[in-house]
Amino acid sequence: MGFADLYIAEIAEDYNLSVEEVLNLCDQLGIAYKTDKTRLALEDAKAIISRILSQRHRLGTNGS
Predict the structure, then answer these.
(1) Which domain holds residue 50?
(2) Coil/strand/helix, residue 6
(3) Orientation angle between helical segments 19-29 and 42-62, nearest 10 degrees
(4) What's the pLDDT tens digit per position in 13-36?
């Protein structure tokens, strides 16, 4: 498995979320981490981003 050049803190910043929100997603998805500077495996980063985008789409669709 390859590594993405992304850290938890960077995903939080890129998607305008708190670090705690991204750490919560890691917990929900069973993604191991030590700190917000943990370098993520490519598949883990994709899973987190996919979940963020899915939640935003669902909120946007339901809010209409």
Answers:
(1) 3-15+24-62
(2) strand
(3) 110
(4) 999 999 999 999 999 999 999 999
